[in-house]
Automatic annotation (TrEMBL):
The keyword Coiled coil applies. Residues 5-39 form a coiled coil. The keyword Chloroplast does not apply. Keywords: Coiled coil. InterPro entries: Snf7_fam. This is Charged multivesicular body protein 1A. One of its GO terms (biological process) is vacuolar transport.
């Protein structure tokens, strides 16, 4: 079980590394978009923008997969912990049976104290596990949402690849963000 836990943690780290690489590649493509637009090369800018979007989506997918693997890792960690706690609880129960059969009040009291401690440990592990499951998505979402809010759609000095008279203003921004060509699906 410990080997599985290690493999899951290692896999999650690899997926996070791939997500960072895809994000870096996306930013490089965005820089190419900016350069192409400054050179008034709209067609190349569109290709670079498609690449940037693809890399960004790839990074998000890697990150989503890393998050899922991390969730499985947490559940496996919880199972390992529960296995240990269950083993300890079984030992305490056997000790309690022995103490009750002898009717030694000191032994019964000591075993009951151990039993209560095990139950408290179980409650702590369970509540921490539930807390991690609830808060993990917030940690993953916050940086992404901050990036989206801070990133401009188009710099004001960039020329539009569309004739403004042909499109309404709201449609211009959305058209620039959509990949061109058949077979592309909007996320």
């Amino acid at each position: 079980m410990d080997d599985t836990l290690f493999q899951l943690k290692f896999t999650a780290k690899q997926l996070e590394k791939l997500a960072k690489k895809a994000e870096k590649d996306s930013k490089a493509e965005q820089a190419k978009v900016k350069k192409a637009l400054q050179q008034k090369n709209v067609e190349c800018a569109r290709v670079y923008a498609e690449n940037a979007i693809r890399k960004k989506n790839e990074g998000v997918n890697w990150l989503r997969m890393a998050s899922r693997v991390d969730a499985v890792t947490s559940k496996v960690q919880m199972a390992v912990t529960m296995k240990g706690v269950t083993k300890n609880m079984a030992q305490v129960t056997k000790a309690l049976d022995k103490a009750l059969s002898t009717m030694d009040l000191q032994k019964v009291s000591a075993v009951m104290d151990r039993f209560e401690q095990q139950v408290q440990n179980l409650d702590v592990h369970t509540s921490v596990g539930c807390l991690e499951e609830l808060t993990a998505p917030l940690h993953a979402l916050a940086p992404l949402l901050c990036d989206v809010l801070e990133a401009p759609v188009l710099p004001p000095h960039c020329p539009s690849p569309f004739d403004p008279a042909e499109l309404p203003p709201a449609a211009m921004a959305s058209q620039l963000l959509l990949p061109a060509g058949p077979g592309w699906a909007q996320n």
